[in-house]
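In practice, a research group might receive sequence data for several interacting partners and want a quick structural hypothesis before committing to experiments. The following worked case mirrors that situation: the sequences arrive first, and a predicted assembly follows.
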Amino acid sequence: MEKIYSTAKICAFDNNSTCDLALEPELTQTLANSRNPEELKHVWVEWRNAVGPHCRLLFEEYVDLSNEAARLNNFTNTAESWLDGYEDPQFRQQIESLWEQLKPLYLQIHAYVRFQLRKKYGDVVSEKGPIPAHLLGNMWAQRWRNVAQFNLPYPDKEEVDLTAELRAQNYTVDKIFRTAEDFFKSINLTEMPQTFWERSILEKPKDREMVCHASAWDFYDRKDFRIKQCTAITMEHFTTAHHEMGHVEYFIQYKNQPVKFRRGANSGFHEAVGDLISLSVESRKHLRKIGLLKSESDDPENVLNNLFQIGLDKIVFLPFGYLMDLWRWDVFEGKITPDEYNCKWWELREKYQGVEPPVNRTDQDFDPAAKYHIIASVPYIRYFVSFVIQFQFHRAVCEKAGQYDANDPSKPLHECDIYQNTEAGNALKKMLQLGSSRPWPDAIEVLTGQRTMDASALLEYFKPLHKWLEQENKKNKVFIGWEKSTKGCVNTKDKAKPE
Ligand SMILES: [Zn+2]
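A structural hypothesis for the assembly, expressed as tokens:
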């Protein structure tokens, strides 16, 4: 399945003789930059045609084999084995309750974006239905930042278009990673070893096929750590570079633990380290410091535009981050059978994300396979966990840096930047060095003083945006939530049943 995914190619929208377009970089770029709904639909559908049907039977086999392996390890099924690392029988309920707390914020940004997209695309977007998934700037509609340009709260105010700025300033791949490293070093974390620079693959090789999905690697010899990323000079890759380097930094911090404990406190922790750094990097304060933001002004409208763009990454990801494994847990538990794979997938996409496919789907399609982590068997709830706890971590380090105070409106959480603050870095380091030697509630307590996951820091960070979205949606009488999609997923077997 990984081979199918990493070598899949499709034809261009307007040129049937160009048929060598890959997910990275071509399709990703088209999804991000094209504003032609027909072209977007083409790429969306063709990518799924190129991967899904070829993986459907293999995936069925994978589910059986994976469950068999889980049973040999004394688990009931793979779902149970994946959840084992969270060491909490109530974990699924915890996640559901976090989502319930975050949902009101998601509904506001969803309604606002649908309203704006309708202005842009007309009837392709319905007034009260789910948002068509191909119009959101990303192949899986998991981050919507690429459509920020025509959704900005204050369109006349400057937009922090970091992609344009990175290119204007001649950023190279090397400079992107050196910039990320500089941040880690500035808070007293450890620099990347020389071998990291020699052995990592930071650009897409021209002479061979490669799984381009970015990843970080610990070779478990306490010296050799690497990143593999087909880096492009974009904002998204700039953030991803910080994300992947966060993994490496965690590897380095716990390298002196016994092998057994050289892991994240739980896998959500591992995903949160680099993102935590990005939260500081994306503050206006920091962007100005490293010369990516020219404007000196921090009036509330500029601040809100910036916060909105971050929300298009961090808020809109939440339901996607949740439903990926909601689907797979049910698949592994046999609650979703192979003939229901695709239609149940769309049920969840609609229920949680409020998105719909651009064209009708059937059980012969297999759209989950169009996402890397599904075919590569990488559990996904870790990203949901990460998106919640990274804000908890952020709140804790910002308090330590004296840059956030719940009772001081001049120090809001979204303006904090811990760059060069060694006190914040040392606090983080203490948690990272534990690896998985302690249960994760002990680890999170070391940094935050809390022993549970808590959505309040994320809500606090986005409070000004949440308030603005509520007012704006009310003013424009925007429908909140969504009615049932008119794009169906048809089970062909049902259809073929005799009357
Ligand atoms: Zn990661």
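Before designing any experiment, note the following. Residues 163-293+382-457 form one domain. The chain has a mean pLDDT of 95.
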